[in-house]
Amino acid sequence: MIGLAPAAHGGNRTGRIFTGDQSGDTLFASLYRTGFANQPRSERRDDGLRLRGGYIAAVVRCAPPANRPTTLERDTCLPYLARELELLSDARVLVALGSFAWDGALLALRLKGVATPRPKPRFGHGAEAQVGPYTLVGCFHPSQQNTFTGKLTEGMLDDVFARARVLAAL
Predict the structure, then answer these.
(1) Distances (CA, A) of 143 to 28, 74, 118, 161
(2) pTM
(3) Domain CATH code at residue 33
(4) Number of folded domains in the chain?
(5) Under 8 Å CB-to-CB from 22, ≥6 apart: which residues?
(6) Which residues on neighbouring strands pair with residue 95, listed in sequence order?
(7) What share of the chain is helix, strand, coil (3-state, %, to 5)?
(8) What is the C-alpha to C-alpha distance for residues 60 and 42, in angstroms, rounded to an integer?
(9) pLDDT at 15
(10) 2-3: strand order across its sheet
(11) pLDDT tens digit string along 84-133?
């Protein structure tokens, strides 16, 4: 899973991305329901949460001002994401949490030497694109803005992770 950046009052504060904020509550509950996590909540780094068959990365490495990362921050941090992907040699499916993460994943893969499709695959919730050995899956970000408005529901999030599980098993 690839997120945007650690939230100032979530991952930046707790030391683990998506931990201690509302987005994380939504994300980890879904990861638990779909078998990727051993518990439905993540409140602090040492709370016993363990991911199974998954890893969470971010396009940007630090909390951006106003929680909105810039393209300069993205481009500065891309080598870190590319290196993480290189180290995750068994990874076959990348779930991009939002269009910023989708674009960041494509750029990091290109930086890693993976041929990326042209034209660039369009982001959408549930969109899939084959990028070299990876299947990139789009998912609306589990932000309060998306969950409170109904743009992203529990079922929609669960469906994406269930699909990711199927794709990873192929």
Answers:
(1) 12, 19, 30, 16
(2) 0.93
(3) 3.40.470.10
(4) 1
(5) 143, 144, 147
(6) 137
(7) 40, 10, 45
(8) 21
(9) 62
(10) 57-58, 2-3, 93-97, 134-139, 128-131
(11) 999 999 999 999 999 999 999 999 999 999 999 999 999 999 999 999 99
